[in-house]
Amino acid sequence: MKVYTYSEARQRLAEVLNIARSEEVVIKRRGGETFSIIFKKNKKSPFDVPGIQTKATTKDILTAVRESRERVAEQNIED
Predict the structure, then answer these.
(1) For 2-37, CATH number?
(2) 25-60 pLDDT tens trace
(3) CB atoms < 10 A from the CB of 28, how many?
(4) Which of 4, 30, 54, 64 is 20 to 30 A distant from 39 in Cα terms?
C-alpha cells in the first residue's frame, strides 16, 4: 500500500493511478481524512455490443457479400 498526501497525489496523479493498478493507494488530507484508490478492471468486453433486429436472412446477407466481392473483382480487372 502506497500513501500520499493530497498535494503529492494531486501533483503526481498519473503516477498514483498507475500504481493503483497493482496495489492500493491511500491519500491523506490535512484534516485527517483518508481515501483509498483501488483499480477496478472492466469486466465487459469492448466487443460485447447489443445485436440488432433485421428482416434480412442469412441468404440475403450472403448474396449481398457475394455481389460486393464480384463488383470489387471486376473493378480490379478493369484497373
Answers:
(1) 3.40.1620.10
(2) 999 999 999 999 999 887 888 888 888 899 999 999
(3) 15
(4) 30
* Cβ within 8 Å of residue 21, ≥6 positions away: 39
Cell of 18: 498507475
CA separation for the pair 43, 28 (Å, rounded): 29
Kindly state the cell numbers that stand for 39: 483499480
Pairing assessment for the beta strands 34-37 and 25-28 based on DSSP bridges: antiparallel
Residue 55 DSSP symbol: S
Q: CA nearest 8: which of 23, 24, 30, 32?
A: 30
Q: What are phi and psi of 33, to 5 degrees?
A: -70, 145
pTM for this model (two decimals) = 0.52
Find where cell 493530497 sits.
6
- Lookup result for grid cell 493511478: 17
First and final CA of the chain: distance in angstroms? 64
